[in-house]
What we know:
- The chain is α/β, with parallel strands linked by helices and about 550 residues long.
- It has 18 helices and 21 strands.
- The chain has helices spanning about 5-15, 20-25, 30-40, 60-80, 95-110, 120-130, 165-175, 190-195, 205-215, 235-245, 280-285, 320-335, 355-360, 375-385, 415-430, 435-445, 465-475, 540-555, and strands spanning about 50, 85-90, 110-115, 135-140, 150-155, 195-200, 225-230, 250-255, 295, 305-310, 315, 345-350, 365-370, 395-400, 400-405, 450-460, 480-485, 485-495, 505-510, 515-520, 525-535.
- Strand 14 (about 395-400) and strand 15 form a beta hairpin.
- Helix 1 packs across helix 3, helix 4 (about 60-80) packs parallel to helix 5 (about 95-110) and helix 10 packs parallel to helix 15.
- It is globular and about 70 Å long.
Amino acid sequence: MNKAEENFNLWIKNVSDKATQNELISIEDDKREIEDRFGEDIKFGTAGLRGIMEAGNNRINIYTVRKATQGLANYLNKNHEAPSVAISYDCRRNSKIFAEEVACVMAANGIKSYITKELTPTPFLSYLVRSLKAHAGIMITASHNTAEYNGYKCYGSDGAQMNEQFASGVYEYIRMVDMFGDIKRMEFSVGINSGMINFTDEALQAKYINEVLKYRSKTVSLSGIKVLYTPLNGTGNKFVRKTLEMVGISDLSVVKSQENPDENFTTCPYPNPENISAFDEALKAAKPGNFDLILATDPDADRLGCCINDNGEYRLLSGNEIGILLANYVLESRKNTNTLPKNGVIVKTIVSTMMTDEIAGAYGLEVRNVLTGFKNIAHEIAELENSDRADDYLFGFEESNGYLCGSYVRDKDAVSASLLMCEAVAYYKENFGKNLVEILSELYAKYGYFGEKTLSYNLKEINSKIVVADIMNYFRKESLSSIGICKIKSKKDYLNSKGVLKSNVLEFDLENSMKIIVRPSGTEPKIKFYLMAKANSASEREKTIKLLVDAVNSVIRDF
């Protein structure tokens, strides 16, 4: 009997609920399914857990949620006196159930929990942790994954996602937990009555929105723009609409079919606002009107996507383009109001557009480039605060549609970014009679035609881990002098470099202002290539990006 079969039999003997028992019985003759679900434990990384909602120790369900929570509780009790946690959840199937299970396990372990009464955005959970001075936070969400997924996102006391040290410490405690023997659990009602489980004060939602509004420009009128918004059936509906209404956007419409929570994401099977398919319903709704922009937030409202009305046609902006426009708007508007700090800082990830460095340089400001993951941007915000330079932080972003203006939270915030995008649209419309597509074209003409593209290779075969390792080893070779026909000028290995955070990432500076960054996924059999270039025209940019795509493909096809 192999490990998967042993684990399956353990579940058969120990699960207590009928639904899971019936699910297990339905797959007892399916060896492949048993191997997939029970062959290994679901991975706990720096972002916590994420997986398909099914029975099995390689899936996310009440049993794996309880095990992770017991491990986290053991860690907190070992390292803190009277620890507390903040908990929230999104619109997905079982999200509320999983959140309550977290509270039940924490309560039984003597840890007070503060749980929201309703679904809320991920950035609000970050705000809760900081506001309540909790020792940790748990957000039940699978972000923009498809409907069968859910997740368990973990935060530290600073409101940022767990760093590697925190996560690895927690993981060691989780590994020691016997899923069916070590779990302590209190009934939710008992926890409420005893004061170990507490609902959060609804006034905190208003305080969070007020923090967002602190970064509102007082010189830009928002009454003259027309906005269509879709929360993609997620948590942004109440928060984004309230924020935009409070700043005077009276012509605000919502996509009705995606207004309210829908755990099946019926009208948007892949609710990722990075992709134009997420705007299908919004574009249908936009036809009768002349909206200046369409906003979309992902289900946990930490990512923002948008389409701009460009002379009657709606143009989807990429994550990098939004970052360019928002960074430029923040600097330009702050300079015009004499509120731009002399030593201001923009923080972005290394895989995000190089154009931001040019824009900030024109203002004499610093750009800090950090490893992927918004927690690394949060780390730089904390470093500035610790150096009495909190006001120098201006804006942070990552190319995957994550943005943050302000330090009230320590994660990307689509509520704040929605407001900032509306401001930018109104500012350029009111002062110059131009839309953001036109402004973007002007920025390219001024700073250079920067281009970016991400290639993602899914490696589904049995030996996918070996293939990923082989690919990274190939690119890590000291003798490597070119990628395809593109000659390498210099290479940075973030796994072995001194003075930087460690990560299995390679960065290549190529001739002719081109760059390639290689990064394997930490949770999936996937490897990504981030391609960047600077050209003298839009047509040259397209040719250069195609050259980079061909160069990478010429190497990958041999694996």
